[in-house]
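Quick one: structure tokens for this chain, please?
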Amino acid sequence: MPRLTTQAEENNPKRVGYDFRVDNQLYRSAVGPNREMVIQSSDVQEQGVNVKQNAEDFTSNIGRIYSRTNFSGGSNLDNAHRRDGTEKDIKRFWDSESVDVFNQDLGKAYNVQLLNTTELEQALSSSDNDNSIAVAGTNIFVSDDATLYISTDGGDTWSTQSTNLTAGYHIKGLAVSGSDLYITANNDSSAGEIELLPTANATPGSSSQKMSAAIYDKIWSV
């Protein structure tokens, strides 16, 4: 069967006589005097035209058309439909980043509003994502490697919470059950523990070890 040349095999297809491609396959066209190649678009109003795959390719306006090809920029198009766009166009026109898409009047005109501005309250330094968060009552706990932070005022201020973690262990997970905070920690290689911080919803003291028979990782409360 015939073998078709692809883009991966030919860097300059025009130079060697290829006139057009379909997907990544290159083709030569049978054109010449009195036999010209004509590329024709379908009439927008024509019945039976399949527009399901790329509806944006069909428009009654005269001008350039940019197809939807990449959805990695967010909930909509990856690139804005305009010539000479900039990197910021993705967020300015076609991305839902920083936009509250859930707070709408359903059944009425579509409206969006910007999310509340955030600010840094407590810097974290873990280089391997050893960060967890848990809420007990009105207290918020956040872990950062071997350090456990607590906030008693809704996250406005933070202080270090006392624990009895084994030296060299990093916190891997936090879970609240009732008024108690459970902490899993390990040394990333051969040992771990589960610690209990009682009365975590009030004024907790310090944690105590409950188990140390395995390398404990995450923990959940259901």
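The first strand starts at residue 20 and ends at 22.
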